[in-house]
Amino acid sequence: MTRKKLDAPIQLPRRKKIIFSTILLCCSILTALALCEFILRYQKQSQQKIDLLDPDLIVYDSRLGWKLTPRWRGNHQHNDFKVRYSTNRYGFRGDFTRPASPDGRRFAFLGDSFTFGFGVNDHETFVDKLNKKEPGNLYLNFAVPGFSTDQQYILLRERVLDFSPDVVVLVTYLGNDLFDNLLPFPLQANHGKPYFELFENRLVLKNSPVPLAAKNKEQAALDLHRVVRGDTTPLRGRLLRILDKSELFQRVTRVNHPNDRDLFPLFDKRFKQALKVYTAILEQMVLLCENNGSELIVVLMPGRSLVERPGSQSAQFQEYLREKIIEKCRKLNIRLIDLALHLKTLHSETGEELFHPNEGHMNAKGHQVTAQTIHKQLKPEFSTQP
To answer: Is residue 210 within 8 Å of residue 63, measured between CB atoms?
Structure first.
């Protein structure tokens, strides 16, 4: 009898069994999550392994911060594409030598890398496609990658108006243009830039001439999340930084995103100054155009998240800015082309892929759709305000 008792398996108390099972389950879940995170990070690194742009496309400029090298030719290779860029003798993309017809109009496009056409060949940019759609008009591409509205205003004032455009088209990228307007360094680049501050409702130019200096630690620490959400408590800040770096968390939020506006009250506080500066620049651009016999038109260019992931944090702040800019343009009597709404609606209804899957800029199809949308709404008879 004593021997049988010694040979019998040890029975753990029920409470200890539950604790042990819970610990084992948690460890298994954490191991599985860690494995998923490793796989996703490896996949992302593999996708981003190739991103090679031939050197010297961008050079320093004391007035603008940087500019494009005239007569430059080079390749840009990424996992998503392999394309070729070229600039003309003026240092911009596209053919500026072809004259418009006597009854045609000259359009000057101001913008950043989306308008320049990162990720597509010269003949695939929406500005080039506009030239092919209506040869009687001349569409000139003055876009410079990384430029924000303040630099575009200076470029308009000092260079673009020399080409006597009938229409100036300001393509505003909702992803970061309004935020970069407030900064001496763009959020996603290390080049210094000029910027404007408002003093008694008057624009005052700062950081000009632009110094050849690297970002300091404070500027380098700024990212889009901090600009959008502001400072957080230390614990929440650490947690958010960990989650932001997690590929698994980012993938989950891309799939599970409510299409709502819960962050709009926060944006009312966070973006007040950015909207004031943007509006003041718009007002100056309108006056500048009117004094030179030109019309100013604003095009709202969305980021990929607004089109593909409505309701995500990135989509929400772009949607907020979209609505505010529409309101400002209506008050200033500026014609506006709501490209953001059109691309978002098209993707929602058809599932059409308009952006490169990893690099983020528009693909050739996106430029084609953009050209069609802008061509339709640039016609003189299409003058309805949004």
So the answer is: yes
